[in-house]
Amino acid sequence: MGSILRALTLIVLIAGGLTAGPAAPARAASDAGAFVGEFADKAIALVSADVSTAERRDAFSKLVRDYFDMPGIGRFLLGRYWRTATEAEQEAYLKAFTENMIYTYSRRFDEYGGQKLVIDGTREDGRFDVVSSRIVSPNSNEEYRLEWRVIETEGGKKIVDIVIEGVSMSVTQRQEYASVIQNNGGKVQALIDALNRQMAGLRSSGG
Questions:
Q1: Which site in 50, 57, 163, 189 is 20 to 30 Å from 129, CA atoms measured?
Q2: Residue 108 — φ and ψ, nearest 5°?
Q3: Is the pLDDT of residue 58 over 80?
């Protein structure tokens, strides 16, 4: 379950070198590009902030909650099992998922290597505003393409998915979660336990 989270963490960090590309015609979808850029600027600022690990982790937790639709992402990742889970399981799962994701992200601030995220444009895709971008490395010609999917919620814009080279991180994570549940008799509690064990391991490792 950690591979997707590690990949997104690195993307979050390199996004701090955001530069603007050509504007794309769309509704205020262009605002979604600014929204992603704003998130990226704040994320990268935490890398060099002169604060304690605990303070940085708290700040990053708030940042992720402000810019990502964590409850919505969590429900999507659980898929059809969200409907079969009890209310207590839903609550425990969302708590475990959110804590695990944010804790994993916040531990990996040292992976930033000067890469930059170039915004190429925005477009509408149904209810999503899609922000197209490229990761550019300062030491090679290698590039990676990714898209940020943003929606408008009651609380404002929120990021709900990142698609890397055509692969949706949410869909991939959803498949991993489903596999854990299916391999344990369809029990959502098995996923909750796995997330909690992973969280315990992260904490015990001193991160």
A1: 57
A2: -110, 30
A3: yes
